[in-house]
Write a structure and sequence with these properties.
2 copies of one chain form a homodimer.
Chain A lengths: L7 E3 L14 H5 L2 H17 L12 H5 L1 H10 L2 E5 L3 H10 L11 E5 L4 H8 L7 E6 L6 H14 L8 E5 L5 H9 L2 E4 L13 H9 L4 H16 L8 H16 L3 E6 L5 H15 L7 E4 L10 H6 L4 E7 L11 H4 L14 H18 L4 E5 L5 H22 L7 H17 L1
Chain lengths: 431, 431
Amino acid sequence: MFHKLPIANDIDACFMHKVDGGFSLKKFKEMAELGSIALEFIRARCNDGTLPILNLPYHRDDIVSWKPIVDRYQSLYDDVVILGIGGSTLGSATICALVDGCVITAPRIHFLDNIDPISFDSRLSSFDKEKTGFLAISKSGSTTETLTKLLIVIDRLGNKNFSTQIICLTEPTDNPMRRIAATHGLLCLDYDPKVIGRFSALSTAGLLPAAIAGINVEGVRRGAAAVLDATIFAKNPLDNPAIAGAAINVALARDHGINQTVFLPYVERLERLSIWFRQLWAESLGKEGYGTTPINAMGVVDQHSQMQLYLAGPRDKFFTVICSDPRGLGGRIRGELAGSAAESLNYLLGHTMGDLMAAEQQATIDSLISNCCPTRLIRFSNLNEEVMGGLIMQFILETIAAAQMMRINAFDQPVVEETKLLIRQFLQEEN
Amino acid sequence: MFHKLPIANDIDACFMHKVDGGFSLKKFKEMAELGSIALEFIRARCNDGTLPILNLPYHRDDIVSWKPIVDRYQSLYDDVVILGIGGSTLGSATICALVDGCVITAPRIHFLDNIDPISFDSRLSSFDKEKTGFLAISKSGSTTETLTKLLIVIDRLGNKNFSTQIICLTEPTDNPMRRIAATHGLLCLDYDPKVIGRFSALSTAGLLPAAIAGINVEGVRRGAAAVLDATIFAKNPLDNPAIAGAAINVALARDHGINQTVFLPYVERLERLSIWFRQLWAESLGKEGYGTTPINAMGVVDQHSQMQLYLAGPRDKFFTVICSDPRGLGGRIRGELAGSAAESLNYLLGHTMGDLMAAEQQATIDSLISNCCPTRLIRFSNLNEEVMGGLIMQFILETIAAAQMMRINAFDQPVVEETKLLIRQFLQEEN
């Protein structure tokens, strides 16, 4: 199956033979037993359907059912604003970033996730009331921030006929969002109660906004299915990229004091994927004193910001470099425009911007390896829907596998729930 | 002097008396000697003028000299694009974020920092060629990424009379940027050679774009001067917020395994400040195996993303929570719009969005403290120019002080320079 995968993993540089006491191939292979446990967990959930995120990649019927909504939003609106926070928006923001650089005539999608009153008002007032659609997403239907934004948007749209302008997406239970929708005659879609927010990128929450943005969401599901297939049918757990990735992360944290996992894509459109991964990894694994800190980085800009620390600071980081092949892309650097600077820029002239990007990517990889930093490479030729779906699926599987290896429940977030209660208390006391 | 400060620091919750072997007030006071060394270093550089960033806050003449440029760019352009990377742009991006939420008629400022060919072309082509000005910034005048972007912009503007449309900012030496400017008749401003990129937020690089954006940059300098004054005239080093902050960071890293410093503002417009701080801290301190990892976070969104890890994961983080007072700001959550959901939302209705933000901020602070996470609070009532200048100055001073305490040179970046050579080699080999 491996030849069909949209992305390739290379873990050779994770093993630091040069460093005394470093992580070795032998130690990695000792993770095989934990790898088997994780793989069996994933296979079982896939077979019994108790984790729908492991079945979603094969579904197409839901996508077909969205068509009337997509058509209506695409024909009526220049802008579509997603109201949500955390898991309700990070997945769709990740996938919607694919539109950058494409000629797409669909609405621009915006995410109003925070509740900073100054920034929220500033952004909301920048949209044309008549030409903007809204989609409010809260799995539980009781997310305080999202309900606040929804009620304020209803208020701002005023007395006009706004009932077709807002769609809600929430569980099919009697919850506040559903009651607000009923009060104002808003369409209310069903959020699958078994899909956990931070794992929802491939469900309606992640893909409906992307479909409205004009993205081929079947392609995203196809790429995810290819990576999921490769895991389910893996003969040896550690031969599978997601299980191997989890094993490396867990072993480096447990035995080598590596408590940070750096996510470093060399593709600007993957900036949101880093933020999505940050939540997935942190909230799934940060429990009972366990968990490593996900660090979002971006090539090449972080070469001018974080690389000094990465290469010369403490040995407490594992690196995942995500690489495309940008050679030949972008504007060409024409020597005649450099004038009297041409001689000192000899190395650069005649190349494209993509050539420079590729050289910087390779220089970083070589520097990480020569400085004995444990480094994994994930490669593809160009970012498209299949690659995006494949990346999302790999990191979902890797997170679930890491939790299994650490004997942690990947699917709850007990502390966050506690804080939510505290917020209600504060507001109630002020009433 | 303290009453004049635009920001207040509260370090009480840094000392975890509840935790066995935790960081205590006694241990903090043992840092007084290192604090004195750091403070003397800062005072000496301030007096002898060898670190101009410590004199800049008192200057106004340079701001006056920019007026013709500011007037021209404001009258001619709808958009102004800054071409630069790292220290050349992070400071101005930080300050320019102040315009969000203000009614300002000046040009919108954009930062094209990366060289991803697809994203760069997409963003560049979104601007109206006739109504867009450019400002290219490279201290050395030989930053490969910035020269590449400058030459491609010159190419794209075509054969028209673009020479007034681009301004360069670089050292007054014979360098490639200056030669390119001379070739095309572009105005070339002087970048002070003694101002290091990542410390340049209060110099021309940071403030000229902000002035074009319509920001009162004198206010930024005033706020910085207030914080700098408070440091220079501090009687006891550890009574000064910047020296104390450095001492806490250094002691927690050295003695308590705390290798991450989380920067958590509850003000959306401070998102860029976190990214600016990330470079300042990482590149200044990440040397010789030392340095802690700066983690950018954002309230309230990271309550739904990172807080589970922060509160229940490993005890390896120091927290700086930056707090404003948003109570009463933003839209009010009107009960009559909630319909049949009103009863279950009783705690929320009647409050403003800012009230909710304030409650979430307080809930996070209380949760961090009750979970024994070492936490510093930096408070101000509302974000304005003085506060922004004060924050920038405090973190510049804190970084310099931390480097002194760690006996590290804060002002070089040796590994980054090595990588730059590698990039040139790769491109040369391909020629």
